[in-house]
Hints:
mainly beta, 10 strands
Amino acid sequence: VGSPAFTSIEVFAFKGRYSVDLRKGSLINFSFVNIESLTPAHSYQVPLSWALKVGAERVTDKNHCIQKEGCVAGVVRIGGGGTVELFSKISLSLLGDYEFMASSELKKSSQRHSVGPRLIVYRPLFENFSFLYDLKVYYHFIYEKAWSLNHDFAFNFKVSKNIDSQLQVSLNDLSREVSFGLRYFF
Length: 186
């Protein structure tokens, strides 16, 4: 209550993975701050939709990392664009993103600069259930495999005011991943 619709702010959010076979944990995603403001345009108002992330992410493109299993890099991602609300409460956002990553584990100059469009589709399905699709098409400067395509499908179920569950399917050029988790918001 009190938060603007179509806006999310995450501070110190993280996602990890533990491999039972390897008996090893790894970081997938960490955010110092991750903000998305995707307010739909109306006939009398056309607000800018924007996103900002500062944190770290696992780079899954094996051609960009020194090690075959990928690497973790610091990330700053900014984007801007517009959002429209279509029939049946479907929200469609199109952003132009710039992403900067840095890590000593990245090939070339230990940096990766990327640009590209990002499409976000959001649809509340029931009172406590929603669907989110996030498509990123990025061009990575100075890398031989310059283009990447990432699909994220997420189904969220609100358990209570502070807890939700999420089933997520992530697809990119080199990996496919299905994850389920509980998220606690405070």
